[in-house]
Structures are given as C-alpha cells and as structure tokens.
Amino acid sequence: MTNQPVLADGTLRRTFEMRFTSTARGARLARRLAAHRLDAWGIPYGTRPHEEIVLVLGELTANAVRHGHVPGRDFHLLLYVTAPHGTVRIEVTDSRGERMPPRPEETRTPDDEDTGGRGLLLVAALAERWGWHARPGGPGKSVWAEYALLV
What we know:
Oligomer: single chain
Strand order of the largest sheet: 1-2-3-5-4
Radius of gyration: 15 Å
Structural class: alpha+beta
CATH topology: Heat Shock Protein 90
Largest sheet: 5 strands, antiparallel
Number of domains: 1
Number of strands: 5
C-alpha cells in the first residue's frame, strides 16, 4: 500500500495497490480487498457505485488471470480515487505481452454460441472509459477503467 498523497491543487488521492497471484483465488482476494477499501473511502457496500466498481474490477482481474497468466508471475492491481472529482481508476497489469485485448472501439458483441467475450462489454457499459497500454518497463499490459462517481 502507498501513502495517500495530496495533489498540488489540494485534492486527495486515495490509493490502494498490491500484487496478487495470477489465480482465481488471487482475483477473488483482489476483489474483496478492493471492495473493503472502497467502503473505507466512503463508497459504501450495497450502493450502486460500489457494486459497479467491484464488478468492473472483478472483470479486469479475471481477465488478467484468464488471458494474462504467465506461470510464476503475479498481476498487479492499482485502485485510486481522486476527490472531489469523484473518479475511480482501476488498473490491472499482467506480464503476458503477446495477448492483447481489443481496443475499446474494436470490441464486438459475441455470437450466441461464443462462451466468452462479454466481460469487456460489461466494462464498457459501466465505466466512463476504458483502455489498455503496454506495460512500461517490462512485458505485458495494463488494462484500465475509469468510473465517474459524480455526473
């Protein structure tokens, strides 16, 4: 975990970051810890924003495990809220560089017979915006989503 920095304009940026094993158990633990952290930051359990943010985070961590898994490597979760702007950013980084997700504008609706491919559609529906970039300083990628608390 990191300190909670105050930005130059006096706004508070609450930050949580941690590495998790690239397993289903690691994804579940990331979801649970992030849900607890959001509640502690004033985005309470049982509210629509809390549930939607945790759902987006769950999709991104599940994708990191399913599509970004490299044996012996963890995934990294960065979650932060900038107040008073009310933007929550979720960033999940994995070590697999040869499997990249589609760009947001290239995401397609899967056919009825497809067994996957709906997670990023869910992320797109709930997040204000999302995308991905190559992992700086190493192999892999970071997939991120931003959720606007205030409209």
